[in-house]
Amino acid sequence: MAAFDQAFDIVVLGTEKGYQNDPRDPGNWTGGAVDRGTLRGTNFGISAASYPALDIAGLTEADARAIYRRDYWDRVQGDALPTALALLVFDAAVNNGTGQAARWLQRAADVDADGQIGPETLAAVQHQGAADGGWHICAGFMALRMQFMAGLPTWRSFGAGWSLRLARLPWQAMTMGQS
Length: 179
Prior knowledge:
This protein is an all-alpha fold and 179 residues long. It has seven helices and two strands, in the order αββαααααα. The longest helix is centred in the C-terminal third of the chain and has 21 residues, at 155-175.
């Protein structure tokens, strides 16, 4: 199975799942904040805040897969990253945005964090990963992400679920390519 398909199954089908319409979740509102815009929900992790014109409730898995490939996986250069790291970066892109995921990767790889994964970032990842299989970058990336997430104002409402998500990811990353 291709890395994108495995990552989609883990992140979207396994974590994001189907339709939900929790009014406490800012992503469920077309205005991106609670009580701003229309409460339209999230489906397969595709939020009303990010896609306000999309029929969220009617979104199919095939439509979601195409959106995730184009707007998340391709933007973080998933095909050019080592498989385990690609999963971590993809999950962060889905949950925290592609620019933020790119900046965490760049900081973990010790390159300028401009939010765009390009040749310099990919070369640094390849160079540093050659020494230890990429686990140093993976650990640094996850530490930056955990620090950020724990500081979010919505941590009190969603922190337990996010903690589980972040704790599970490295284990899932280690098994990618084995199925």
